[in-house]
Amino acid sequence: MKSNLLLGAAMTVGAIALTSAPSMAATKFEFWYGLSGDLSERIQDMCKDFNASQADYEIVCVSQDNYESNLQNTIAAFRANKQPTIAQISDGGVVDLMLSGAYVPVRQLMEENGYKIDWSNYFSGIASYFSTSTGELLAMPFNNSTAVFYYNTDALKAVGFDGAPQTWEQVEDIARKLKAAGYECPIAFDPTGQWQWWEEFSAVHNQPIATKGNGFGGLDAEVAFNKGKFVDQLAWYKKMYDEGLLVNKSKAAGETANDSFVNAHCQMSSSSIADHGFIGKQAKEGMHWDVTMLPVWEGTERTNSFVGGAALWTLKGKSAEEYKGAAAFYNFIATPKQAEWWSTVTGYIPVTNTGYQAMVDKGFYSAAPYKGRELAIKSLTFTPPTEYTRGVRLGNFGAVRKEVQDAIQAVLFENKPVQQALDEAAERSNAILRKFEKTYPGATLP
Amino acid sequence: MIERSPFFDFVSYAAMVIGLVLVLIPFWVVIVAGSQSLQEVARVPFSMLPSNHLMENIQAAWARADLGPKLINSFIVAAGVTIGKITLAAFSAFAIVFFNFRARMICFWAIFITLMLPLEVRIVPTYSIAANALLPFQVLLDTLGITWLVQSVSGVQIALNWNLLNSYTGLILPLIATATGTFLYRQFFMTIPDELVEASKMDGSGPMGFFWDVLIPLSRTNMLALATIMFVSSWNQYLWPLLVTTDRANFGTVVMQLKALIPAQNGTPDWNVTMAGALIIMLPPLLVVALMQRWFVRGLISRDK
Amino acid sequence: MERRAFYRNGWLPWLLLAPQLILVLVFFYWPTSQALYWAFTLEQAWGGGNTWVGFDNFLAIFADNKYWATVGRSAFYAIAATGLSMAVALILAMFADRALSGTKLFQSVFVWPYAIAAPAAGVAFRFIFSPEAGLIGAVNQMWPGIWDPSTVGWHALAMVIICHAWLGIGYNFIFFLAALQMVPRSLSEAGAMDGARPFRRMLDLQLPLIAPTVFFLLIMNIISSFTDSFGLIDVMTEGGPIGATEVMVYKIYFDGFKGLDYSGAAAQSIVLMLLVISLTFVQFKWVERRVHYN
Question: Which residue intervals define the domain ABC transmembrane type-1 in the entry (chain C) (predicted)?
């Protein structure tokens, strides 16, 4: 009786052992990103394609809705030791991550896994944001963009302006003419758009966001936006706002800036090149529009603009197998076919020289609906990155951005004096930076 | 009403009708907007009459906010919290009211003080607990040297880890931990006459016998009241589920989806879909309140008084 | 009521209490001690370590006049929402107490706001008050720009306060009605015989007698304005415009989770905790005493 039982048990164990023999199961690893809607679907497509292209690894892609939630949730998961292998972290969240050492530099990852990548192929304007101060890439550039200026060609022609506005003087002139001709909203202004209206403005005019090379040189940098050209620029925004030439457009005000542009309610707007596809699809029937680089003041020597968007960071604490999978995924998205696909279905720009060149050679940028996107590359590579156009490396930059955003809004909506608003924002921003410095005593930026 | 005062009666009715309108306007707007088409809802001024697009809006909201699985999650959480709270609080209140042990008042205050600390006030640190709920015990073991002891003796390292992120336990447990139910039961138990206890003792039954045979049957209405209050309150939780789910697709609750329903940036202002979705989300607790009103009103009053 | 009949059993009460005590330890006391620890250090976002800074975090927030603006705003929010909600609920309860025929129907509807989640009400009110659509949009058409919660701070604040007050009507109504119904009819009859009209009776007789309830609701409403406001504000305004609707609890969430300033958020949490504890403490001490004397 007992021996029968034992035999039965042994057979069961044997059966279990046989059936659970290590099968060639694909290594699963997770990728968390902060995009939603249409863009999220494209990423899901990309992940499906990766899984279909090979059998060793399976990527699981989870949307966290927006960059902030993604950062928040990734940190929570990291503290709980449940982090994804790859996380899409945008330019604002980068410094905390860098100082925490909670990531695996992408160059190291690719080398360790035997992939040869030509790192110099990446546009320096893009790579510099996510690299060490000596130019070694830490994260894989992914969805990158820059700020551009959209304009309604019909409206501009109607007031006698042909071609693309290149200077702010021209923009002001056009706006006045539009207003006089009865256009209610010459320029759409997104009050949360400090990225394009402040940061990118400063970049193309080679104005410092902060001392020490925008923070690249050390944690003891101080903000610089309350000095220099931005002060005048904000005063100019205020003047234009008061005259009704710059109109507040946001979700809370009833219509976002982009919506107002595609509905031809507003004739000029500034936002990311990533919106190029959306505008193309949604533009009112019969509307003619175009895109150009951000305007500069006459006589300015234009410099390259900042890269926007995010990069893919590989987080520490995962298994070697998962890192192999991540490396394979990076390799996959870097193939010319994938890169071209990504730049086609979204407005994001190619991140490598060869990738861009291949698309130019194919005539991608010669006709609608993609014509105009090459201007983003032109803007990003207008000059080699200078001390102030490499990017911004300030701790807790999100909080600093909020201070500037509040200052801009206070000036426009509450009539606060420009210099006072910016000085106060600068004081608070510096306090934020000093606190950040104290939180990481003795740390140096990579 | 003591005397006949037709004028004052009229004033009373008028006041109550105005009150009715004030209270009902948001509900009415939600229903009406949820039943209109995109053009109708964007029309200014907004028409206060319902239209006939309710079903299609509900379908759109259902898809956009993925309401199906979320509704199930909300039900699981609400049911879990309700059942958990009813049982747990009964035991605790029983212990505090009917037993005379030295630490009695300390236990009472320890539980009671938590009423003063609603979650919103503790979000940052409670968040760290969600990562590893057993951390306090781990620290306890570490400081007492037990971890070191066990490790040197058997080579086994105690690493307690209980991750509450993205789990039903994580969604339910912290909500059971609050003292509201305990307080409700305590108030009620305090009104139980001594004679009942004496009689039970004389019948030879011990404390648990008294608990199951006498106390629980008497508490039925209170339990129902507590159940309705807890169902509504746990269904309506917003902040805690927001913090403790990183995998929103699988563990999100339905109230969290409200933000997702609001017309998106760079999108069309389809408030009609938003309102249809809000309607679905509001319905279950509203039904509970409307239908179980007698019980839960009684529960509220006796709990807090 | 003094209890004299007890059970004496050494370990049973502990067994019964264990689940709740453990939960309370894990989810209340431990996190609170963690918050204290974080409040006195500078905590790194990704958890790498922290530095002791003593009272610096507290000093920093007390020196920040935006923090005091938030505190003032929270106080204003609390008083306005509470006042509005309780006033409306009291008036409705007083009329409902007259028990005219058909009141039961009104009564059951007045309770409904209690069932609604704060964010859900937030969505509905956001639509009602949005400047371009719905109901207020019509007003904006006639007088353009008169209502704009996206740029005018106090419009946004008003919108949020109204929504919060609406949510509280159900809860307050239940308590007021119950309290009014406990006022002995004999008193009202005596008052009537003395020649007092119904309205006079309301003011001079009923109001003072329900004072303990008024006090109790005052505290509960104020505490709710600190807690329930979160979901509401997150859905309606996210603290904007320019922080015009940023109350203490929202600032904690924003600074901690969006600003990655865990230590500052922890310090603010401690301050808020102390505030709420003292409020509840006051309430229980006073109301308990009053109830006993009555």
Answer: 71-283
The whole model's pTM is what?
Answer: 0.82
Mutation choice for C interface testing from B1, B4, B13, B16 by most C CBs within 10 A: B16
Question: Do A88 and A312 form a contact (C-beta atoms < 8 A)?
Answer: yes
Domain ranges of chain C: 65-290
Sheet hosting strand A246-248, strand order edge to edge: A246-248, A185-189, A266-272, A147-152, A289-293
Inter-residue contact C39 to B121 (CB < 8 Å): no
Q: Are C221 and C165 in contact (CB under 8 A)?
A: no
Alpha-helix residue ranges (DSSP H) falling in C111-228: 118-129, 134-142, 153-181, 185-193, 198-201, 207-209, 211-227
A268 and A187 Cβ atoms separated by less than 8 Å? yes
Half-sphere CA count of A67, side-chain side, radius 13 A: 15
- Report whether B236 contacts B78 (CB < 8 A): no
B246 touching A, CB under 8 A? yes
Indicate the pLDDT class of residue B67, thresholds 50, 70 and 90.
Answer: confident
Side-chain half-sphere exposure of A142, counting CA atoms within 13 A: 28
Q: How far is B140 from chain A (nearest CA, A)?
A: 19
Cα–Cα distance, A177 to A170 (Å, whole number): 11
Residue with tokens 């609001």: B262
Summarize pLDDT for B167-220 with one digit per residue, the tens. Answer: 888 888 888 887 878 877 887 888 888 888 888 888 888 888 888 888 888 888
d(CA C122, CA C166): 10
Q: What are phi and psi of C146, to 5 degrees?
A: -75, -25
Q: Does residue C131 sit in helix, strand or coil?
A: coil
Is 1.10.3720.10 the CATH number for C65-290?
yes
ipTM for the assembly = 0.79
Question: Comparing A2-6, B41-45, B262-266, which segment has the lowest mean pLDDT?
Answer: A2-6
The SS3 assignment for C67 reads helix
Strands A86-90, A27-33: parallel, antiparallel or unpaired by DSSP?
parallel
Q: Do C32 and B125 touch (CB under 8 A)?
A: yes
- Interchain proximity A102–C152, CB inside 8 Å: no
- Strand, helix or coil for residue C40: coil
For A321-365, write each residue's pLDDT tens digit: 999 999 999 999 888 888 888 888 887 888 888 888 888 888 888
Chain A contacts of B243, Cβ < 8 Å? 76
Give me the phi and psi of A247, to 5 degrees please.
-115, 135
CA distances A110 to A52, A118, A148, A446, B271, Å, are 21, 11, 33, 19, 47
Phi-psi region of A22 (alpha: psi -120 to 50; beta: other; left: phi over 0): beta
| Residue C180: predicted pLDDT | 85
Range B194-203, long-range pairs (CB < 8 A, 24+ positions) = B194/C3, B194/C4, B194/C5, B197/B98, B197/C5, B197/C6, B197/C7, B198/C5, B201/C5
Q: Tell me the H-state helices in A128-228.
A: 153-158, 168-180, 194, 201-204, 211-214
The full DSSP string for B27-77 is HHHHHHHHTS-HHHHH-SSPP-S--S-HHHHHHHHHHHTTHHHHHHHHHHH
Query: Measured between alpha carbons, how far is C22 from C139 in angstroms, rounded to an integer?
Result: 56
- Taking CA–CA distances from C269, the nearest residue in chain B reads B121
